Records
---
Amino acid sequence: MIKHSFLNHLTLLQFEGEDSLTFLQGQLSQDMKAVTGHTALLASYANPKGRVLSTLLFWQASPTCYYALLRQDVADFIQKRLSMFVLRAKVKISTVPHQLIAYWGEDLSPLTSLSSTIQTFVDTPSIALHQQPSFTVITLNAQRYAIQFPTIDTTQRLLVVDLDAETSPTLIGEAGSRAEWEKQDIQIVLPWIGEATKGEFVAQSINQDAIGAINFKKGCYPGQEVIARSHYLGNLKRRTLPAVMDVTTEDTAALLGTDVMVEDTPVGQVVNAVSVDGKTYLLLELQLRSTENSAQLTLAQFNTSSPLTLLDVPYSLDKPE
């Protein structure tokens, strides 16, 4: 059975112009030369203190055009901030009309009715176990892209990016909940930084190095000195881990940035959260020592009768070479 949902918590920025690659290379943690029309890569945009203002997923539409997927609530801020540094570079940063349609299920073969090229995804599911998450891109036509998202099980996930925002899309399968898709992002430990948490976390504490969003061999970009120093000279004391709580809340947005407690001591913050199926799934940025000795983790605004249970991270948290 296939389910679908519109993802209105995410949005799209377009970077267009002959200097797009050079400009992005000087602003982001990722080596943008490795971004192609077939492979989307994660990246961080940080302030000079190395604290992440946004996490993004980039792919190349043409040699002079790139698209970035990011949280909708921080997109205007990121667009305006990046535009401040364009100066004389030949690049235009803009929002573009679009629709983001997520599909997931055990078998996505019915989606080949959208394009026969989707069969590639059906034949090669992306399972994010013991490896960095990867995102394969297929161009369906001049206005539509399909991006394969990783999963932790046999579920397959596909995001269709449609640049035609006027025409009602042909939807396949039954309507699902956006929360179901967000739950899967939490299970694969894919942090999305938005308005509530921008500037709160250094890149490594939200696993940006572990998920391949940082290239330590590229040149300078905002926050690079701090991020590199932490990598080469520091010990990793904080990481982001998935967790679940056996209660639900109608306003999960209010949880973002909330303190995580061990007894009366704050030991971390909530990065992402979603309630689905009677539970609340969260990504928690934590002091690693707080996870030792079976310490009971709770949220500051919930009592201790609602403990947090940590889940497995599907990729290595060891410091990359």
---
Amino acid sequence: MRRELFSLSIALAFTGDLYTQSLFAQDGANAAKPVEPSSAKMSTSDLLRRFENAEYAWQQAQIADVLVIAGDRSILPRIAQLTRVSDRKRRCNAAFVLDGLGDARGMAILVAELRDTRPRAVNPEEKRGNGGAERQAHSDRHHCAHLLGRIGRDEAIPTLIELLKDEELCDVAASSLGNLGVSDAMDDLVVMADAFPQHRDSAASALAKLGDARGLEMLSEIVTSNLHESVRLRATDALRESGSLKQQPVLLQALADPHPNVRVAAVRALNALGDARSLPGLRIASQDESVPPWHAPTTVSAEAIAAIEAIERRDQQLLP
């Protein structure tokens, strides 16, 4: 049983954190207000009403966590009805609640939705559209895969491992298996990494979390490869999360990556490692005024200067 993950889910829901929003939002323009902390004090009937009337599926998914934590099985009949709505994401959200409240129908519904690859009408809620009927199916299945990964029960593991063979959903499955600590998935993750190079970083990150040395080796190879910059960026971030000093040479090499976002990620990773041997490379990077095109408004130089100051400050604190 891995229900301890719900404590993390509930914390994310009540802080309205950007990760949770980006996980479920399909359109940045639809980023309405997240669930307020006051939801924790609501009655189950009030929460159920908010669940039914949530403007967007990602908001409803947040409330789903709260309903599961509340543990009120009296809402099961109404939740079961909501698993038959036309909106697939909302259908999956209801199935998630069913499962969380101990109703086996929830898992069965989620697995069925994952296996349904048929094209379907584009959801009007997703205002910009996502490329037509086939992409809508992918979007719905992607949402469902995230929910399955958040369930955290042993019964979900076989389906997640099966999804490692699905080119569209293997990255979600890999991340979930890594977070859940499923060591039985290691060999399947290696196969996935070879089968889908565009998702190799996801498999490698999961392997690293599971303590498999092949994961860090793969991540290091990706960082210095000619794969797309988004893949190199994710691999660099994963090396930072690993906290392994053995990867310091690769991160120093990444300071010369062609893409500014990868260089910024390398600087931040070296900052996190906090090793003074990185200072010469960081001083060179401090002259790089490039502005990364994605995410935070910063420069390579600003990040490098901050890293230098942080490492030097740590060294001073270690002096007798």
---
Amino acid sequence: MTSVLQLPAELWLQVFSFLSWRDKLSVRCTCSHFRHLLDKSRPLWRGFSVTPPTALP
């Protein structure tokens, strides 16, 4: 039996491209293989930014 993790990285990156940033974060937490794929693919995170909170009065 073949593991789904043996699919080519290009195929996974194509699948991940359809996910929202929240879904990508969830997938990233499922296994080290997916975390590695997502971490090395900057274009998948385009449009995602972290804004620090403003100082409270």
---
Amino acid sequence: METIKRRSRDLFEDVAPNGKRISPFSPYDQSTSAQKFSRSRFYLNRKLQNSYANEQMLQLLLLSLVKLFLVVKGKRG
């Protein structure tokens, strides 16, 4: 469970050279606006890829449940 929390936290935060975490949207971030933009695009792309993978897994699960239901229904009737 800790790794899931850490990974989700790392998705939105970056580690500064001094070891402190900074959000890509933090006003205290000293990066240039181009660096912030590219970092936020990277985080958004990763988030979109994760949501796409989750959607694929849900579709596969739903399909498996429908197949299981049809098999059980076929054996009963």
